[in-house]
Structures are given as C-alpha cells and as structure tokens.
User: Which sequence fits this backbone?
C-alpha cells in the first residue's frame, strides 16, 4: 500500500465497527471536540447487526460486577445515562426492575454476596422472602431473592441508529476492512473489500467479534483471541406468566448470567441465553461453520485451556442446547408453570468473549492503546448498557492520540 499516502487525510479518526460501542465513540468524539472529522466503517448494510441488535435489550444495573472495575463503574453510570438518552430521543424503553432468585440453599451465600456487591456499587437492592417474591412475580418460586429497581429494557438497535445520526460522523456501510497500513509518523490507511482506501490520523478498533483480527491487521498483537459463544433463546408463548425480569443467581466463575426471563419493550418474554461454543464468529445457527475461523479458535491455546478447566459447565450448556427438555428444566427452577409448549425458538446471539493464552476469560472491558490506534478488545455485556461512558473513554483516548500526533 505505497500509493495510498498520496493526498490528504480523509478523516481525523476512523472507527472500525458500527455497533453501539463504535457509534457511541463517534458520538462522544464529535461532542467533545466539535469539528473533528470522524468516519465509521461497518461491514454490514446497517448498524447494530451483531451483538448490539441480538441481545435481550436489558439495561443492566451493574450489580454483578466487581467494585471498582470498568464494568461496574460504566454500567451503573451508563444505565442512568441510557434511560435519559432514550427519553430524550423518544426511543422505546422502560425501567422495570428485576428479581435475582435463589432456588437452592447452596445459592444463598452467593445471593447475599450480590447484595453486598450491589451496595458497594451504589445500587439500591431489596432482599425478599418467598412471600415477597410472589408479590412481585406470582408464578416465580424461590427461597429468597433480591429486587434491583434500576434495571430496565430498551431498543438498543434504535439507540445505535440515533447515535449514528446524532454523531454527525460519516457512516459507510458495506465497508469490510481487509488491510491496514499503519505508519506511526503519518497515520493509518485502511483498504476495504471494495477497494476503497480511507486515510486517517488515528484508528479506533470497535470491531467486536473481529476486534482481535483488526488489531493484528494493524500490526499489534492483542495477547488474546475472541472465542465466540452462541446464546440461544426461546420466546414464551404465555408472556403473562412473567411481569418483568427474572434471573437466577449466577456462577461467579463465569461471565455468563444463566438462563433468565426478560419481558421486552414489545411485551414479549424471551428466555435465555445459554452459552455454547459457536463454530463461526457469526455462528448464529448450529450449522453455521467457517473452517478458517474455527481453525483459528482451535489453534489458540486458551480455547483448549477453557475446555479442560470448565468441561463440566460446558457439557451442561451443550446438553441444554440440544435438549429442549433440559432447557425447560432449567427454566422451571424459576418458573414451575412453564411447559414445553410454552417455549418457541427465537433468534440467537453470539458473545464476543476475549480469552487469554492461559485460558482466562477476560472479565472486564479491555481497551488498549498503541501507536495511532485504540483497540477495544473485550466489550460484551453489559457494553450496550455502558456504551455512552465507554464511548467517552475511548473517545478521550483517541483524541489524546490525535493531539500527540499533531
């Protein structure tokens, strides 16, 4: 790519990825530094086609996350900001609250730990006994629960569209990045599959499921790989069984929250997700296989370390994937009245989970700077909830690189 440097820069900051984090970053930059030219490249025909548009739409409170972590700080702040953003721009949303329910005695210590964690994170929580659970959710059964009032739901795809519009950035859809030429003394030039070249002073990598690949295209070794996990959902045929949001007590060893029930803004109730290895980065169906991507996952030592360390957990998730009866049993722990006929298959999502070489599942958001580049290397849930403060942090770093380059 020798000739790409003939001519002026096309933009100051080039963002790769048109999900909610990339668009929030563009929005944050143009507000913090008016006049900054921002371009967003998105390989799909529109925004929010992957993690953003395929999640359960929950505005998370931040109760699950380690005090002081980026997830805790940004989720708590982001939840309030997301509600305000939706109200300001007329986007469908509701603050519903949720229950986290212990159904076995072994879960009670973890439930009490969540109460403490919630208080440390500044989240109001209320402890409930069986009778009080029934007052909130008549069909839900449990030994104890906590009620979190700040949890809500919204339409994240609509949020992403509004961020794209309000940012004033140039958004190019159908622009899949295939090559990056970074020169610290000059900037970054990106070539798309269509042969277009975009020159920028600074690159921001918000490529989600492909963020590690983009980092390596840039010439940076991220020290992690994205291992995709498919989350499968059902829709509840009798949505009247659930009033709001109902969650199990999660296992703190994993970043997954377990099969839960979510009443969305359309009144429907989704059940899920589980977490099973996907055979492609965009492997939304069981038959979706991309051999090159699968080979890349299997070549990463961390993938094998996960399998060895957590095979029992993984076997249970796979069993619930192939057995509707097993999935039903997991749901009935919370909602005994549900039947097999109540579970209707719904579209799946894929979580972009960063995994280190030793098999560690990266638990917090992971943002790294390099020469002329900012890489967002781990931003799964609650990234949609936290997208506004995350965007400001990424934008702050990008503008810092921009100033130092001038």
Assistant:
């Amino acid at each position: 790519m020798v000739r790409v440097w003939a001519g002026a820069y096309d933009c100051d900051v080039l963002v790769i990825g048109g999900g909610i984090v990339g668009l929030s970053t563009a929005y944050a930059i143009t507000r913090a530094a008016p006049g900054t030219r921002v371009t967003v490249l998105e390989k799909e025909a529109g925004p929010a086609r992957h993690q953003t548009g395929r999640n359960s739409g929950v505005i998370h409170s931040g109760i699950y996350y380690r005090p002081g972590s980026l997830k805790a700080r940004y989720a708590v702040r982001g939840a309030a900001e997301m509600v305000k953003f939706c109200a300001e721009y007329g986007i469908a949303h509701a603050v519903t609250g949720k229950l986290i329910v212990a159904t076995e005695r072994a879960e009670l210590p973890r439930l009490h730990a969540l109460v403490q964690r919630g208080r440390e994170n500044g989240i109001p929580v209320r402890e409930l006994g069986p009778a009080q659970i029934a007052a909130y959710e008549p069909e839900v059964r449990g030994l104890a629960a906590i009620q979190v009032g700040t949890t809500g739901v919204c339409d994240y795809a609509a949020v992403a569209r509004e961020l794209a519009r309000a940012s004033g950035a140039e958004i190019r859809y159908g622009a899949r990045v295939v090559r990056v030429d970074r020169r610290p003394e000059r900037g970054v030039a990106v070539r798309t599959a269509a042969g277009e070249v975009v020159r920028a002073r600074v690159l921001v990598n918000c490529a989600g499921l492909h963020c590690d690949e983009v980092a390596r295209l840039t010439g940076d070794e991220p020290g992690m790989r994205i291992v995709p996990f498919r989350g499968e959902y059902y829709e509840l045929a009798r949505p009247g069984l659930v009033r709001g949001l109902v969650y199990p007590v999660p296992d703190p060893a994993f970043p997954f929250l377990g099969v839960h029930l979510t009443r969305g803004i359309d009144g429907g109730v989704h059940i899920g997700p589980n977490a099973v290895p996907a055979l492609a980065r965009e492997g939304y169906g069981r038959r979706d296989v991309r051999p090159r991507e699968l080979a890349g996952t299997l070549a990463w030592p961390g993938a094998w370390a996960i399998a060895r360390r957590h095979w029992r957990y993984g076997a249970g998730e796979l069993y619930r994937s192939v057995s509707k009866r097993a999935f039903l049993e997991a749901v009935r722990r919370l909602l005994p009245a549900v039947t097999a006929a109540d579970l209707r298959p719904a579209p799946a999502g894929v979580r972009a989970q960063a995994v280190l070489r030793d098999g560690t599942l990266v638990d917090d958001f992971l943002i790294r700077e390099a020469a002329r580049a900012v890489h967002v290397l781990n931003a799964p849930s609650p990234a949609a909830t936290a997208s506004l403060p995350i965007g400001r942090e990424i934008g702050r770093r990008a503008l810092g690189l921009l100033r130092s380059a001038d």
Remarks:
- The mean pLDDT is 95.
